[in-house]
User: Fold these one by one.
Assistant:
Number 1:
Amino acid sequence: MGLTNAQIAAGLDAIAARDPQVAAALKAVGYPQERIRERGYRTLLRTIVGQQVSVAAADAVWGRLVAHLGEDIPPRAVLAADFDALRACGLSRQKQGYARSLCALIADGALDLHALPADDEEAIAALTQVKGIGRWSAEIYLLFAEGRPDIWPAGDLAVQVGAGRIAGLSERPDERETRALAEKWRPHRGAMAIFTWHYYQNPAL
């Protein structure tokens, strides 16, 4: 599971105690709410289904997959499914390739989502074996499904904007600059990532 509200608050308090800009931002918008996802295969499959489509469209595709393959959408059932049947559920050729890549790794035991490496970079490398799962998707999984405390998805646009605003920058930092900005927020960058989304989305700013 992801970081809890208590863990997020503790991480942000630790950062704010040594970073006046974060302290001021926290005072302005308050604490974010936890974002928790289920650990395991279904969450990664849902990530693939949701790529480049609206939430409503992803929900519709997911519902059709559940109706066709069952609530658990077993990996071997996806691998055995007919191309046209999955296309009728809403999976494009590309997404079927991604889904089958994930399911093959799970079914063969090459990827165990309940025993990922403890080292974050090694865990990211394990997840990005899956076609269609890049660094950002892997980081989001590790943050929201595993609650790893120091994950920092610097490639995320909202994280870049939020972090830049908090740091008082006049322009949005790029991914490299966003990673550099967050070095001082270790080992609580996961809580800070959640806070940057919260700060970015706050209508009062």
Number 2:
Amino acid sequence: MHVPDGFLDAPTSVATGVVAAGGVAVALRGARRELDERTAPLAGLTAAFVFAAQMINFPVAAGTSGHLIGGALTAVLVGPWTAVLCMTVVLLVQAVLFADGGLTALGTNTTLMGLVAVGVGYGTFRLLAAVLPRTRGGVLVAAGVGAFLSVPVAALAFVGLFAVGGVADVPVGTVAAAMVGVHLLIGLGEAVITVAVLGAVLTVRPDLVHGAAYLRRPADLARRPAPVETDSR
């Protein structure tokens, strides 16, 4: 999913950079409502996990491979605004230290993986969570579907950018067929990883999952202090 330097023309790259900068600015304001002394460390751990997981590729089809994007997973864990910031930091470090995507394509990659993937993944999660049972299984199903859809939609967004400012002499239809076909398969891997990670966190600390804060373990409820009774006589 990482778009390399020089794959889109300069005006398109600048435009996506402006969109990404605006999205990050809005996310900085929104993250203030999501982060506190309890959730801030989880945001750092989530960003570190996504960074490491994106370095691991899994086979998709003959000659192709894919890796976790992590937009939906991060949004469900720490909230959508904080997820945008986490994804931006991950992409920035990858571009600067590993030339993964490149600096001139940073705005494009942030728009695709930090804005589109997070927005689609979390939006789908919220829609499904509203109609599914408010249980651990309902959370996992909603997150899995959101993770799956976030990948091909981000791929389609790239196809749209390529149609506007692609510099390679390749028909847009060919690019669309290749991108969507491969990323539908990658989306399946994204869903499996998302469900596995969320399932593990929900088992241990469901109260730390932003999208499932209403789930509590019996032990958590038992540790709540008993209400103080007052004598009304």
